[in-house]
Amino acid sequence: MTVVEGGAGRAGGDGEREPDPSDSLRTFGAVVQALREHAGLSRLEFGARVRFSKHTVESVELGRRMPDVAFVERAEGALGNTGALRKAAKHLSRGEPGLAAWFRRWARLEKTAVSLYTYECRLVPGLLQSEPYVRAVFDNSIPLLTDAQVKAQVAARLDRQKMLHARPHVPFSFIVEEAVFRRRLGGPEVMRTLLDHVLEQSERRNVTLQVVPLGAESHSCLDGPLQLLETPEGRRLAYSEGQQNGRLVSSPREVSFLHQRYDTLRSQALNPQESQGLLEQLRGEL
C-alpha cells in the first residue's frame, strides 16, 4: 500500500490507497500488451516464453509492476527484437512518492510554472501548511495511517513546499476562506503554530495571501477549490480536486472562465494587509 498526497489537503483523504501506476509504467505495459497481441500470444503463452507467470505478465501490462531486466530482455526476444522495449524501459519510473496519481502531472507542471494561483475552502493550502498542521491533516485520514505512512506523507508535503523559497521570482497567490483558519484542526497549539507560519510565509515578496471573510456577501468560487498556473510557454492550465480524484483542465475556454472567477474573488476577498490583520487577530484569540 502507498500513501498519496494531492494539492492542499489529503487528496481524497491523502489516505492509504492501492498503488497507482506511473504514466511510464502504464505506457510500457501498453506497449508490451500491443506487441504480445500482435504476435498472437495469450498472456499464458507469452508468460511461458519469457518464463514469468501469467499474473506477472498481467501486472506488467497493467502498469502495476516494475519489470526487471530479465523480463525486458526475454520479452524483446519473444516479441521480435525490435529494441522498443529496451528503449522504453530506460524511461520507467514508479511515479513520485507521496503524490496521488491524479496529482502527479499537476505537481510536475508546478515545478516549472511562471505563476501559481490557489483558492482553498477546505484546508490551508499545502504549500503554506506548518509541519504540525500537516501531521494533524494526516492524523485525520480515513482509513487511519500507520506512523510510517504519516511520516512519508509529511516528508512529501514539506519537500513540495520548497518551491516557495527555491523559486523567489515566481509569484504565488493564495486566497483562503476565513473559516479554514477558524477551524482548530489539531488543537489551539497547532493552529497557533500554523498562523505564525502562514504569516511568515506571506511576508515573502513572491507570496500574496488574501482571506475571504465570513461576512463576504459575494463569492465567485462557490464551486470549490481551484488552482491555476501559467507555463513558461504562456499556456494557462487549471486543476480542481475532490474526494479521491482530481482534474487537470486544459480547455482554453474553461480555463478562461476559471481565471475570471479567481480574479473576481480577489476583489471580494480582503486585501493582503487586511488579511494579515485578520490572521493576527485570530492568532491572538487562541
Verbal overview:
α11 (188-201) packs antiparallel against α13. This protein starts with a strand and ends with a helix. Helices cover 48% and strands 15% of the residues. Residues 10-21 have low confidence and may be disordered. A hairpin with a 2-residue loop joins β8 (236-242) and β9 (245-249). By secondary structure, the protein is of the alpha/beta class. The protein has 13 helices and nine strands. The chain folds into two domains: 23-89, Orthogonal Bundle (434 Repressor (Amino-terminal Domain)), CATH 1.10.260; 102-285, 2-Layer Sandwich (Endonuclease, Chain A), CATH 3.30.870.
Write a brief structural summary.
The protein has helices at 23-38, 43-50, 54-61, 69-78, 84-89, 101-112, 131-139, 147-160, 163-166, 178-182, 188-201, 252-268, 272-285; strands spanning 2-5, 16-17, 98-99, 115-120, 172-177, 207-212, 226-230, 236-242, 245-249. The protein has 286 residues and is α/β, with parallel strands linked by helices.
